[in-house]
Amino acid sequence: MDKGYVDKKTKRIGIDARFYGPTGKGLGRYTKEIVDRVLAADSINEFVVFLYKENFTEFTFAGPRIKKVLVKARWYSFAEQLLMPYLIRREKLDLMHFPHFNVPLVCPAKFVVTIHDLILTRHPTQRATTLNPIFYKIKYFVYKVIIKSAIKRAEKIIAVSRFTKNDIIDQFKVDKERITVTLEGIASEFKDDLKKNDKNVLLRYNIKEPYLLYVGNAYPHKNLEWLIRVFTAIRRENPALHLVLVGKDDYFYSRLKKIAEKIESGHILFPGYIPDSDLGAVYRLSSAYVFPSLYEGFGLPPLEAMANGCPVISSNRTSMPEILGEAALYFDPENRDEMIRQVDRVISDQYLRQTLINKGFGQAKKYSWDHCARQTLEIYYQVLL
Fold first, then answer.
1. What distances in angstroms separate CA 278 from CA 115, 234, 246, one per listed residue?
2. Shortest CA distance to 382 belongs to which of 92, 50, 97?
3. pLDDT digits (tens, 9 = 90+) for 351-373
4. Which residue would you say has higher pLDDT here, 36 or 137?
5. What's the confidence (pLDDT) of residue 4?
């Protein structure tokens, strides 16, 4: 990892890891995988890892070159805009990595920022917040200012797909040389051989077969309300079929449950958050993974499904054809009949199903967190030289 790094003088690198682990959902996965692997790979520099109270004890990576700092400010808060610059200055950092756009407007060190998507500027909607209209407009304006500031001031920008890179260039007129694409990876838990106790996992979460599966959050752009409504039509031809929506119970999932109860009670299941140790089994026993999202910067769960031998039916929007390639069936996420047809094909055509599974295994192998971390570390080195 260090071979291309010419300046051997020790530097102090900070990483904002407040999203680290399950607390941060998809961002938490990215942050954890990058932080753990970067720290293991770099034998030269000192690292300061900024954590939140919910994951401070969860981060257990220890070493003489690693310092943990508790940040008493939640992400997206006004407090982080004041506290993070103070902590960065106090730690005398040479470089700071923000794994998300929430970079302080004043940052007293060079920084790298990861942009996962531009959903807030592309698809603003009040349905994605619990705030009243006035406060939402204020918060949305502040978000836009912070995103623009982060992109304009960063030494380097990390994008998680070519789609996101092009989106950044299109919206903010950034020099493409400042942006590096580092594709995400598949967690090691999802690369194990098939297990014999998969059925027990389904019993634990009261999941009934056969079922279509979705894993992730329930934000409006995920298009899950539409999925629920289309599922009612799918069941007319497949009355035994269930729809399983896996995700941590929050305001958005609570709202979705109320909609499901009115539309299709009994065949739409909400098992809540499922840890990786059990999630592989849920993927493996699914009839198909369905991803109806309107906008994605990367889209990790469909790849996890592929790594577990689950055929994937995906939206054809934004980054999904780039990430999933020829290993998925695609549909227009606003075309009801098209989605019904694709689901029916996977359920009824065993040859097609097996073809998708085989292609999915190959597609998932293209993505590596180790490679992503190596690229990230190389970006640090480029800035530090």
1. 29, 27, 12
2. 97
3. 999 999 999 999 999 999 999 99
4. 36
5. 53
What residue type is 269 in one-letter code?
L
Determine how many CB atoms are found less than 10 A away from the CB of residue 258.
9
Q: Is 67 helix (H, G, I), strand (E, B) or coil?
A: strand
Flag whether pLDDT at 83 surpasses 70.
Answer: yes
Amino acid letter, residue 237: E
- Cis before 292 (ω within 30): no
Could you give all domains of the chain from N- to C-terminal order, each with its CATH number? 12-185+368-384 (3.40.50.2000), 190-364 (3.40.50.2000)
Question: CB neighbours of 20 closer than 8 A, spacing ≥ 6?
Answer: 28, 31, 32, 35, 51, 52, 55, 58, 59
Q: How many Å is the Cα radius of gyration of the chain?
A: 21
Task: For residue 74, give every residue at least 6 positions away whose Cβ sits within 8 Å of its Cβ, in sequence order, or none.
Answer: 18, 52, 80
Structure tokens at 227: 């999925």
What Cα–Cα distance (Å) separates residue 272 from each residue in 21, 244, 290, 317? 17, 10, 17, 27
Length of the chain in terms of residues written: 385
Nearest in space to 5 (alpha carbons), one of 63, 38, 36, 44: 44
Per-residue HEC secondary structure of 290-305 comes to EECCCCCCCCHHHHHH
Letter for the amino acid at 19?
Answer: F
Give the whole-angstrom CA distance, residue 221 versus residue 119. 8
Structure tokens at 92: 């005398």
Which H or E run contains 369?
helix 369-384
What tokens were used for 217?
Answer: 């959050």
Query: Does residue 313 have a pLDDT over 70?
Result: yes
Q: What pLDDT, in 10s, does the model give residues 225-265?
A: 999 999 999 999 999 999 999 999 999 999 999 999 988 76
